[in-house]
Amino acid sequence: MAESWDGNLHSGSHSDESYRDSLHVEPIYEAFLCPLTKEVMRNPVTIENGQTFEREAIEKWFRECRDSGRRPTCPLTQKELKSTDLNPSIALRNTIEEWTKRNEAVQLDKACRILSPGSPEVDVLQALNHIAHICQKSRSNKHVVRNAELIPMIAEMLKHGSRKVQIKALETLCIVAEGDDDNKDVIAAGDTIRTIVKFLSREHSQEREEAVSLLYELSKSELLCEKIGGVGGAILILVGMASSKSENISTVEKADKTLQNLEKCEKNVRQMAENGRLQPLLTLLLEGSADTQLSMASYLGELVLSNDVKVFVAQTAGSALVDVMKSGSKQAREAALKALNQISSYEASAKILIQAGILPPLVKDLFTVGINQLPMRLKEVSATVLTNIVSSGADFESIPLDQDHRTLVSEDIVHNLLHLISNTGPAIECKLLQVLVGLTSSSTTFMNIVAAIKSSGATISLVQFVEAPQRDVRMASIKLLHNISPDMGQELADAFRGTAGQLSSLINVIAENNGISEEQADAVGLLANLPERDSYLTRRLLDEGAFKIVVSKVVSIRQGISRGGRFVTPFLEGLVKVLSRLAYILEGEPEIIALAREYNLAALFTDLLQMNGLDNVQTVSAQALQNLSKQSRHLTRIPVVPEPGFCCTIFPCLGNPPVITGLCRVHHGFCSVKDSFCLLEGRAVEKLVACLDHANEKVIEAALSALCTLLDDGVDIEQGVSVLDDADGIKPILEILRENRTEMLKQQAVWAVERILRKEEIALEISGDQNVGTALVDAFRHGDYRTRQIAERALKHVDKLPNFSGIFPKIG
Fold this sequence. Notes:
With about 800 residues, this protein is an all-alpha fold. It has a 3-stranded antiparallel β-sheet with strand order 2-1-3. A hairpin with a 5-residue loop joins strand 1 and strand 2 (about 50-55). Helix 16 runs parallel beside helix 18 (about 330-345). It is elongated, with a radius of gyration of 48 Å. Keywords: Transferase. It comes from Ensete ventricosum (Abyssinian banana).
């Protein structure tokens, strides 16, 4: 004996010999062994001296002799040979083959008895080694293994308790399956594929590698592709392995090749797309049959894609899908539209679709009526895609829709959109309103849309959508109206005069208490942009209870009760501006004055001046305080001095007027912040002076205008100057005059300085400031008529002009 039972183990091993003996293997005869390889010969040949060798081994020996420059010799005798002819030893070969078959039959029979879950690990490993060895020797042996019903037994070893056995079983099954479809079918029977897939998630890389190698081999059979893909999670795991950076290269390549084989089944392609491997689906979409293309486009429309994938799909298949929109059947167009709906929902991919020419067929589908029109459900998809496209922020003025070079913002196109909005169902209404929202959100297309809305006379129709029962339609309409309100404030105010329903709907939105939403910010922003001096609209809002709601919302935000994310600032800005409407119609309106007192508006706006960082809130609050302060001289309670009595006529010493305390220095009456809106009593002067140092000119203008009400005709101007002086307000006003930042600020500052200089000690102090004099001279030379006149008077106060100068006639 010279070799173990499988031809691989070394002779002399006691354990191997005992295992061989236990298999009742026939002994290996010395004649069977090649003297060079010491292995059983497969193709024995005889040389001229009668010695027998394995053909491959002796040919190698002769080649080495020749390469070394020696004459050929016999490896055993070392004698030179006259010839290197080789004579096949057919009889010996047949004998060896018969011996091998008997030996293998015994070994396979023993393997059948050994392959069971309870067998020792070493025995099972040796049995699996033998099966693998004999299958590698010839394809016919694979048939023998199948006929011996060993394949299910090997598969059962995948559940063995030993990891080594499991790995060897995977390896053996791979060898058994290679190039034999019948064996693959046997392996795939039952639940074996599911068991193999489980190994893909194992911790040890060797298990994963053997499992993916086996699946790759099985996937070469087209009949098994669907079964492999049908195992839950199989494709997901394979996709992960194919893109893994941590797996070894061999495993990654096998996983990728397995997926390529699985692409033969459309169901698998869908699963791959679902798990981020889009290329197979896109390939079928571009190159498959018409039915396959339709199927892939339909499925693409159902997928939830990441943004990166949307860009990839747009680049790969965008043009093809647009072509289907132009010329495909209705069924194909529906599938393409749904796919485009998915892809277009990301800005970057939407821009790629625009370059692919999506806009012309999209708009055509929306506007076409008659026999060729799309069903309404598909027009809804078209409207959704158009909404996505518009949201990309592309330059729509430069994208022609037809040969007439009309664009999406051309007047007649916008008119058609407005007409379609008014004559379709809520779903399309909502999407087309969102299209207009997108176009009015862009500074480049805003004016085109506003002009088209004005020329179409559709303002009233758009306002009516504020009452829509569908929340998304209402939200879109409010957003659109808010967008256009800066340039269509009066038109919208006129439209809201028609019925009470729309205003009520807006107020109800503002009153909601589910946090602060974008819809609330848009609703109050819309109202804030309507003409603030429209007393009729203000009274309508008053009748609807709007101001009570607005005050409660402002107070709630100021106290930190209401909290919101990114919409809290625009919401508060809108609330404050709506509330400031009351300050514009106080004149001769006892009811409005009573309401302003009830809500203590002067104190509220004074408090809002402190909201640093919210420039619009500070500006509007200062403007409101200006309007409120103008009413203070009318609302202050002037004390009544009693008529002198009879005794006072006899005794004049008794006729001295009584001393009255607590009077306002500026208004000479009893003032309060709540009842007369007095800036002094409300401690607003210091806060307004602080705003004069603001970086925003609008805030400065509003604050200065409010402070100027202390210097108005009808109040004690000298005391007003003293109040400003006490609040350190004169210096910043002079600074504004010197800086000459805007024309409005220059005019305000010249007016205020002229009033301040009426107080002699102030004028005396300022007369030495050359910068003030220079600024006044500049205003005197370059200002408008009124400013020059006021500057002239100011220069007289500081003796820069003689008092008899009369360059400008005095005007009221």
